[in-house]
Here is the input.
Amino acid sequence: MRRAWWAVIGIGLGTWWWMREREETEVIDDLMSDTPSSAEPDVPDDSVMIADLLSPWRNFSRYILDATADTSISPELVVAFIHRESSGIPTARNPKRGAVGNKTHIGLMQIKCATARNPMGFRGRCEELFNPQLNILYGTGYLRYLLAIHGGELDLAIASYFVGPNDARRLRRHPDGSFADPKVQRYVQKVLDQANRIQLPTGPLT
Here is the structure.
């Protein structure tokens, strides 16, 4: 009888430890993933410290400089996008669970694998876009593509990065030029404001 009682206690402790380990693993997974711009949190810009804005530059400056070389896109704008899209977390993805596929928003700039393939010509596996250098290269390339199809209108290119270039309803603008969709207008304004606040050091830091 005593042996049976200790066996029950042992099973109970083992189950408790397994549940504890599982909960901790799920918390870590959540911390390592992030929400893309389509579900962008409503955080006041004043709460974003300059040090936080510079975090992507400290970690990925060489890749940012390479991706923006000989383009009309400033490194400051790419830093603002990275901060806005992923908070500088290379493993950020949406959806957070399940297999990584063509519709997954991936990495620092939360570019979809399908978008990297077409129109950007990416031919690798979707998981490869978690590589910071590749992600910044294709994310910046896509932004450059959006600028081209929108005649160089930066605010429209930023809005298209947020909702997609073919969403005419959400890209509709008021006569004053602001976007009719308040979420789109807020996203564009935050990216531009953050890009204007950033003063990058000269040269790469990595």
